[in-house]
Amino acid sequence: HNSLVDSMAVLAVAPRAAGPMAKAPLWKMKVLRLFLEAVEAVPVFRPQDAAENDGRGARANLETFAECIRRLQAGRSIVLFPEGMSRPSSKLLPLRTGAARNALDAETPVSVVPIGLLHEPPGKRRGTLLVRFGAPFLVDGRETGASRRGQVAATTRRMEAAIRALLAEADNLE
Known about the structure:
Distance between the termini: 21 Å
Order of helices and strands: HEHEHEHEEEEH
Largest sheet: 3 strands, parallel
Helix content: 25-40%
């Protein structure tokens, strides 16, 4: 449920429209499907969800990534959680390389806007969620120099540093 809350919070305060990436099984729920289509979400096929996705696993993400790249090339925005999941945590998890690969594969300048989500644990009232936007930076897959693997690693590290600067990390949520 947290991924929906986090995505909705970002969509609610973002200065421009952005289609979130969301796990594919959510499209099976009629009400959620209508919402996901309305916000132009992109399905992500996780290996652990293959049974719920009629056997479609991570390989189905080739079309997902192609759609993300088309959107970026068209100057549109996507919301992606580069940790590969969204959950309240007191520390940033290691980033996966998908966000960097999408930005680089667009082969056009892509503005990356880091976002930090800060959760206040619920107590006697509902918890509070703070969405912090960082300074945008450009990623351009047309730039040459480093190897492809090096570009992906450097871009992922840059994203991680930018997100980490927006968070208040601690040993636990308390």
